[in-house]
């Protein structure tokens, strides 16, 4: 007896759903839908605030469209839209050999560093460094890849004798921020500027009167509303892939410049670096 294999029906993508529901969209929803169809390549990298501005509507309209199309929210909509864009991309110019990939990534890294350098405001770096130099404690928060960079910078601060800790667990981060001493600093890392937990952490820190720093790629993003200072990075990872090199390189450069500015404000830095280096000397052969 032969068996028939039944394939599950393919879930319609974002563009297909827009076209399917086009006849039932209100004028404002149709305005957003038409904008998405015209400029999907740009929309997949935008925040909800940026899309609302470019489409000429309010953020609530974007949310209504996503729900009308049966998406849980804007982020889920962007992932589906990114899949649609990727599906029509033939990628004919992308290299297929390791040497070609190496050259492409090196060029991309160079451009990311240059772009980040152009975005940096020296006065913002100096202002944040001044706050860090006298903070009784520094809390850093970030999710996913940004969380790993937060942990790296917390380690760098510890080497200078600055009490610092990084959190990737949002609940533990909230508890720590709520007990931060007066004069404490909270740094939130999120490339999109829309990571809910990180935004909420900076909002909590601001409500307690702490100095807050947002490190993000997006000027028009929720996290900037709760930041005493914003340090901008270049580029943003694709919502559909795990290609995060641009984000990691850009965030690391910003934090290294911040670290350099800190060194000038801490005369004891050289001695502290030696002491902390000697503390782990027995851990190496």
Question: What can you tell me about this protein's structure?
Answer:
By secondary structure, this protein is α/β, with parallel strands linked by helices. Helix content is 55%, strand content 8%. It has 13 helices and 5 strands. It has helices at 14-21, 27-38, 40-43, 48-55, 59-68, 74-88, 98-119, 122-133, 145-159, 170-178, 196-207, 245-263, 269-278, and strands at 138-142, 164-167, 185-189, 211-216, 229-232. It has a 5-stranded parallel sheet with strand order 2-1-3-4-5, with helices on both faces. Helix 9 (145-159) links the parallel strand 1 (138-142) and strand 2. Helix 2 (27-38) crosses helix 5, helix 8 crosses helix 12 and helix 9 packs parallel to helix 12. It is globular and about 70 Å long. The N and C termini lie far apart (67 Å). 33% of the residues are buried. Mean pLDDT is 86; it is low at 4-9.
Q: What is the helix fraction of residues, given as a range? A: 40-55%
Overall, the morphology is globular
Low-confidence stretches: 4-9
* Order of adjacent strands in the largest pleated sheet: 2-1-3-4-5
Return Rg in Å.
22 Å
Count of individual helical segments = 13
What are the secondary-structure elements, in order, as H or E?
A: HHHHHHHHEHEHEHEEHH
Q: How would you state the average pLDDT, rounded?
A: 86
- The share of residues in extended strands comes to 5-15%
How many strand elements?
Answer: 5
Terminal residue distance: 67 Å
**How would a crystallographer describe the biggest sheet?**
5 strands, parallel
Structural class: alpha/beta
